[in-house]
Amino acid sequence: MIILVINCGSSSIKYQLLDMKNDDVYDLLAKGIVEKIGLPSGKLVHRPSGKDRVEKEVAVPDHKVGMQMVLEELVDPVHGVLKSFDDIEAVGHRIVQGADFFSGSAIVDEDVLQKIEICCDFAPLHNPAHLLGIRAVQHVLPSVPQVVTFDTAYHQTMPDYAYMYALPYEYYTKYRVRRYGAHGTSHQFVAHKGAEFCGLDINDSRIITCHLGNGSSVTAIKNGKVVDTSMGFTPLEGMIMGTRCGIIDANIVPYIMKKENLTPDQMTDIMNKKSGLLGMTGVSSDMRDLDAAANAGDEKAKLAMKKLSYDVIKLIGAYIAVLDGVDLIVFTAGIGENNTRLRRRVCENFGYIGLKFDYEANIATGKDVLISCPDSKVKVAVITTDEELVIARDTMHLVQGCEE
Asked: CA 20 to 30 Å from 272, out of 28, 114, 198, 203?
């Protein structure tokens, strides 16, 4: 089954085209991104397998035009990989927030769209863009079934005492205010892949997964089910991230708003887009830039990197207590898979539980590797994540189920 996987941002469309034979046998036909949608100068990067990469600087006024451009690249006579649009049998979408409406993926219908719309309040930077992507596909490929996979679905096994806030209970019943988490698709994938990689039974295991990128979260997983995760009502809660502040004293918010004469929307923008690594350093939200700055002696960059490591250490420590121990710690995503310094700093703090760190193995980046010693009581692995594959698998199963 040929499946187009879409991940829409507010001004971008990331995509992969996969030919799924079954869960574990598939071909990546093409992938790419459309950027700067709605801005004067847009950009498309298309990477067809076995063919030359294509880059175009072109205006992309909206997501409908962006989707049309993606499809045109896929069927282009020179660098396309399909004969026609009819070859696309299904489209799968990543959705950041599904609240407690969804504990798994779903086929798109009007009821599903209405619930995603309700969840826009919980993920204002993401869900509206996802809806634009779904509507764009409906416009361009009206007869093709679509499936949505939610970042929040995997976290629905959290117990109520873990997901509830100590606010008046009516805010939960009236406004659905509770912790939902995010990155669930990635946490699920690397937990299962990591368990298999390390010879553990996922159904009899205690795993802590660290998805560390521009957005970061840590999750405690017992016997394959989430018991706690660091992100909350929105992806703002938890540890320091690229541009997000993570957890802060809530009273800081009205305090700064009064001092700076800010509106709620302005304060939200500061906490989500101008804080985190970027806010602390004034240099960048990208760890590669901060590594270079720290190596050049930038004290703020050094401080931000220390805080990032410290936040991960605190979360892992807390989740070791929650799980009553840990069998496997997994690092994944852009920082987790590639930043050897952070992994070393974190793991050196857990010798007291019998973790023996393999410094030589830790040199590897961007691939699956065990970075704990053979006699370590706790296994530590770097596992490359593949959220698009999870979406494609779910899309294939749901669409095939409907056809049967």
From this structure: 114
> Strands 225-229 and 206-212, how do they pair?
unpaired
Percentage with pLDDT > 90 across the chain: 74
Question: Residue by residue, what is the 3-state secondary structure of the chain?
Answer: CEEEEEEEECCEEEEEEEEECCCCCEEEEEEEEEECCCCCCEEEEEEECCCCCEEEEECCCCHHHHHHHHHHHHCCCCCCCCCCHHHCCEEEEEECCCCCCCCCCEECCHHHHHHHHHHHHCCCCCHHHHHHHHHHHHHHCCCCCEEEEECCHHHHHCCHHHHCCCCCHHHHHHHCCCCCCCCHHHHHHHHHHHHHHHCCCHHHCEEEEEEECCCEEEEEEECCEEEEECCCCCCCCCCCCCCCCCCCCCCHHHHHHHHHCCCHHHHHHHHHHCCHHHHHHCCCCCHHHHHHHHHCCCHHHHHHHHHHHHHHHHHHHHHHHHHCCCCEEEEEHHHHHHCHHHHHHHHHHHHHHCCCECCCHHHCCCCCEECECCCCCCEEEECCCCHHHHHHHHHHHHHHHHHC
* Mean pLDDT value across residues 259-285: 93
Per-residue confidence band for 298, with pLDDT thresholds at 50, 70 and 90: very high
| Residues catalogued as catalytic | 151
The whole-angstrom separation of Cα 260 and Cα 274 is: 15
One-letter amino acid of 274 = K
Q: Which residues face 330 on adjacent strands?
A: 209, 381
Does residue 228 carry a pLDDT above 70?
yes
| Phi-psi sector, 145: left (phi>0), alpha (psi -120 to 50), beta | beta
For 337-352, write each residue's pLDDT tens digit.
999 999 999 999 999 9
pTM of the predicted protein model = 0.89
Q: Can you tell me the distance from the alpha carbon of 394 to that of 93, in angstroms, rounded to the nearest whole number?
A: 10
In this structure, which amino acid lies at residue 51?
Answer: K
Residue 102 to residue 100: CA distance in whole angstroms: 5
Of the candidates 156, 26, 3, the one whose C-alpha atom is nearest the C-alpha of residue 94 is: 3
More confident position, 61 or 9: 61
Per-residue pLDDT tens for 147-170? 999 999 999 999 999 999 999 999
Predicted local confidence at residue 284, as pLDDT? 87
**Which of 14-18, 134-138, 154-158, 391-395 shows the lowest mean pLDDT across its residues?**
134-138
